[in-house]
Each structure stands twice: as C-alpha cells, then as structure tokens.
Specification:
The protein is built from six helices and three strands, in the order E-H-H-E-E-H-H-H-H. By secondary structure, the protein is mainly α.
C-alpha cells in the first residue's frame, strides 16, 4: 500500500482552512481524524478488490492512496465478465458491510437512526458510528455511479459483457461515463 505524496496536501489543506477560519487545533485535528477514518475505509475497499482478484488468480501489484481515493493496480483484468463483476463489486460491498455494521451497532445502542436526529450528536462512539455509517454508505453509492473507469462503470461493462463482446461493452460503458461527466459538469456550473 502506497500513500501518494499528494495525499499530504489534503490534511495540510484541512489544517490551513481550519486555522484560517478561526478553528482550534482540537477541531482541526478532529476533522483530519475523520478524513483519515474515511481513507482507512478506502484502503479496506481497495483490499476488497485485491482479495477478490486474488481468488480468481489475478495478482495486485499495489494499492495507491490519493487525495481523491484509492486505486488497486491489478496485473490484469480477467476476460471473464463474471470475474470482473465480482472483483469490481467487492470494493463497494466492503463499504456497504462497514455501513451495515455501524448501523447495527447504532441500532443496538438504542439510537433512533431514521429520524432527523441522525447527525445531531457527533460526539463519542455514537458520533463515530454515525459518521462511519454515513461515510461508507456515501462511498458505496458514489462507487456505483456507472462512469467508466470507476467501479460503477466497470460493473456496467462486466454486466454488458455477459451478453455483448468485450469491446462493445467497453464502448457503451465509456459513452455512459462521458455522458454522466457532461451531466455532472452542467449540474456543477448551475
């Protein structure tokens, strides 16, 4: 597992903006801690890809953590679309499992999750569990966006590849990814 040098820019940016906005060092360190927790979940997500790939005989060269997420560099992507599907879906399923565990722990502690009080108390263990639940559910959903080469796009390609030639499935997945990219740009500029 490698930490790309640009990753250091993320906590540096959080510290700079937090202190510039008049925040205390405790608040800044808490924010950095939450970011590091998210990236620990990203590492687990990437291990989900790597371990599933290993099950299908595909080695992982390395896992690189960037400020925008992680990348598991597989030696190759299997030609079998079903194997590609399971390798790709394994990462988001790790995030769903973490969210599920956090949800169960919160429910067991008696916290009413499905109310407007979900984020009212971000202190202590319930706050950490709430954060883990929300962050991992968000990572799960974000990674399912069918924008190739993200996980969702690879899932789309593998599903299409079960009925279409790989090249055609890849073309369709990349077109869907481009259309979504344009939609996100248009939405972001409004």
């Amino acid at each position: 597992v490698f930490l790309h040098w640009t990753f250091i820019l993320l906590p540096a940016y959080i510290a700079f903006t937090g202190i510039s906005d008049g925040g205390s060092w405790d608040e800044v360190l808490t924010e950095i801690g939450y970011v590091l927790i998210v990236f620990a979940c990203v590492v687990l997500h990437e291990f989900g890809h790597a371990l599933t790939a290993q099950r299908f005989g595909v080695r992982t060269r390395d896992i690189t953590i960037l400020p925008i997420g992680g990348v598991a560099s597989l030696e190759r992507m299997p030609e079998d679309p079903k194997q590609e599907f399971w390798i790709t879906v394994a990462g988001p399923l790790v995030n769903l499992a973490i969210a599920g565990i956090a949800f169960i722990a919160l429910a067991a502690s008696g916290m009413a999750l499905l109310t407007t009080d979900l984020f009212s108390n971000l202190e202590g263990w319930t706050g950490l569990l709430t954060f883990l639940f929300a962050a991992n559910l968000s990572l799960f959903l974000f990674n399912l966006i069918p924008a190739f080469p993200m996980d969702g796009g690879r899932i789309l390609r593998s599903v299409l590849g079960m009925w279409l030639p790989r090249a055609k499935a890849t073309r369709i997945a990349t077109v869907v990814g481009r259309v979504l990219a344009v939609c996100f740009v248009v939405y972001g500029t409004q």
